[in-house]
Design a protein that fits this description.
Distance between the termini: 41 Å
Number of domains: 1
């Protein structure tokens, strides 16, 4: 069972890193497209249109990349390392915080 957990964790990390690379490439492309638009250099470009859509997509990519970094950091934090620090041994479930709802 421990080997399966180790394999699952490594697979999740590999998938998240591949997703991060793809999203970073998309972000680079988005930045290039935004810089190539004439209205991007205006101080107060008109609202709406393709520039706003590209900027919204850029924000979403930044948010997604931050989330991936957060998950990878959490995995690293909860993953026990072997004495050489090479291989993940076990991962624990997400912590649950008991509290009182605000509403």
């Amino acid at each position: 069972m421990e080997d399966m957990d180790n394999c699952d964790t490594e697979m999740v990390v590999a998938v998240l890193e591949a997703l991060r690379e793809e999203m970073a490439a998309d972000l680079d492309d988005m930045e290039r497209r935004i810089r190539g638009m004439p209205e991007a250099s205006q101080i107060d470009p008109p609202p709406g249109g393709e520039l706003d859509e590209l900027r919204t997509a850029r924000v979403a990519l930044h948010s997604g990349l931050a989330s991936i970094r957060e998950v990878l950091g959490w995995i690293e934090w909860i993953t026990e390392k072997d004495p050489e620090g090479e291989t993940a041994v076990a991962a624990q479930p997400l912590p649950t915080v008991l509290g009182y709802p605000i509403h």
